[in-house]
């Protein structure tokens, strides 16, 4: 997929929406020094081009009872297309997995798992992940504390 070209105003719009996705068009236009109609046209173009892929709220996991986070490295027994597709389809059905990345190196995937507690993690591991055919090995690490949380992409280097 080819990357699109952005001018300074596009990058300013993207940065503002990453910081505060609920901004009104009028407030966004004021912050990026455009008229509301010009700002709205740019936002709509960024949405149509798939650059703005959606809007979401950041939820504090502890406040909703999801106090345990783990990173689970997964190695598959086989790497043919059918095994990879079967695994990725399963991962996409598991609500506990909030992110999954295919990796280079010894392990094939890195799963970010968010659950209520250790008992929930144990059930997830035994009932889903270890029960999934094709998984040869797993290695889990629990998050003790989050030092930095993803807040958006580093757009400042693009301009």
CATH topology of the largest domain: Alpha-Beta Plaits
What share of the residues lie within helices?
25-40%
The CATH superfamily of the largest domain is known as Lrp/AsnC effector binding domain/regulation of amino acid metabolism (RAM) domain
Radius of gyration: 20 Å
Give the helix tally: 5
CATH class of the largest domain: Alpha Beta
Query: What is the makeup of the main sheet?
Result: 4 strands, antiparallel
- The tally of structural domains comes to 2
Spatial strand order of the main sheet? 2-3-1-4
Organism: Arenimonas soli
Keywords: DNA-binding, Transcription, Transcription regulation
Protein name: AsnC family transcriptional regulator
Pfam family, one: HTH_24
Descriptive overview:
With 159 residues, this protein is α+β, with helices and mostly antiparallel strands. It folds into two domains: 8-57, Arc Repressor Mutant, subunit A (Orthogonal Bundle); 62-142, 2-Layer Sandwich (Alpha-Beta Plaits). The chain has helices spanning 8-19, 25-32, 36-48, 81-93, 118-129; strands spanning 68-76, 97-102, 109-115, 135-142. The protein has a four-stranded antiparallel beta sheet. A hairpin with a 6-residue loop joins strand 2 (97-102) and strand 3. The protein is elongated and about 55 Å long. The two termini are 20 Å apart. 13% of the residues are buried. The mean pLDDT is 94.
